[in-house]
Predict the structure.
Amino acid sequence: VHLYPGRTSGLSAVPTTTLPGMDGTFGCFGSGLAMGDFDRDGLADLAVGAYCAQMSTGRVYLLPGRRDTVLGPALRRTPPRAMSFSQFGIDLAAWTPWPPATRQTG
């Protein structure tokens, strides 16, 4: 998975970050992608599917957004009732309000 920075003038021609496949050559890492503020911290997070992992049971990796780096370390998720060939992570979609609502304290 290659990450390209966006600017008001458009996308960069060169990726700034490349995420290596986390399940080997045949894990299908990057088969599904979704972006949103999943942990509600005000930063964009990335979900990456790998539907061929573990005999096509599949996995989804959650990479939290960070202020000091592009993304934090991946959190691996597998389906709650893993079954071979279930292809968890083949397609991903997300809906989170963007930009996130500001938090109020008080």
User: Anything to note?
Assistant: Helices lie at 53-56. The first helix runs from residue 53 to 56. The first strand starts at residue 2 and ends at 3.
